[in-house]
Amino acid sequence: SMLADREAAQFGDDVIWLARDGSARLLLARQTSIYSDSVGLYPEVLSVDVATGKTSRAVASRNGIWNWAADGSGTVRMGWGSSESGRERMLVYRASADDAFRVIDRASTRKGETLISPVLFPPDGLDLLRRRLLPLVTLVTPNLPEAELLTEGQVRTEADMTEAGRSLIAMGAGAALVKGGHLPGQPNDLLIFSGGAKVFSGERRAREYHGTGCALSSAVACRLARSEDLVTAVAGARNYLGRCLDAAEPGKGKAWILNFPRANDLS
In which region does residue 264 sit, left (phi positive, over 0), alpha (psi from -120 to 50) or beta (all else)? Predict the structure, then answer.
């Protein structure tokens, strides 16, 4: 019922074709993402010989992915952007509809997580990100390593998280949600904004997950687009993420969270 491929488990309900000649072959749909070491975006189809475990790519993942931006969206969740090579990450912005799009940074992919919204991990260019991007954002959502990169300081305690959030606001960000999952003990998140701060208590789960940062920031953006205030949007997004984690699909290593555990569910 399940085949293990690299870090992600492939479930039997992903099987889309069984060989009719009696051989132990099947076609298996799978997803790849920026968290996978595969090149390309989902979906792709693999041919699997069940007897030997040999896997080959029958249908490659799509290449028809373009960098794009929409005017008048009101709320934008900044994150990963594709480029022609598929091995570079690019982030663009424009301050107003009359401005030209500007490339903030271009960086080669590193092994592991290249992006955790909305921070890129470039070998250089962080100064541009601090000076030109942070003043444009309503909320920046770093985990502790990202907060250290942005603030060039040590973030190892909740007091450090508060100081990092204040530093990010001083750089121009509207607010900062500093995520405490890397701290030992209870994984609290700290929202720092101009009017004060709020601690969101978390629950330490038994395993690790892929995609939590992207899901959380996207959910916050969706709720802000529905005209919720920042504290309400963050609280609702964290509740939504918890349900995604409850529905996560097990795999080899980190589990893959299930976005939209119920259809049309952003509550």
Answer: left
- Give the DSSP H or E segment for 188: none
Is residue 247 predicted with pLDDT exceeding 80? no
Alpha-carbon gap, residue 89 to 54, rounded angstroms: 32
Spatial CB neighbours of 53, under 8 Å, sequence gap ≥ 6? none
Q: Using omega within 30 degrees of 0 as the cis cutoff, is the peptide bond preceding 187 cis?
A: no
Model pTM score: 0.62
Position 185 scores a pLDDT of: 84
Using alpha carbons, select from 147, 245, 207, 240 the residue that is nearest to residue 7.
Answer: 207
pLDDT at res. 50: 64
Q: What is the pLDDT of residues 88-105, one digit of tens each?
A: 444 555 556 666 555 544
Q: Is 244 left (phi over 0), alpha (psi -120 to 50) or beta?
A: alpha
pLDDT of residue 141: 92
> What are the structural domains of the chain?
2-59 (no CATH), 66-117 (no CATH), 118-256 (3.40.1190.20)
**Residue 226 CA from chain centroid, whole number:** 21
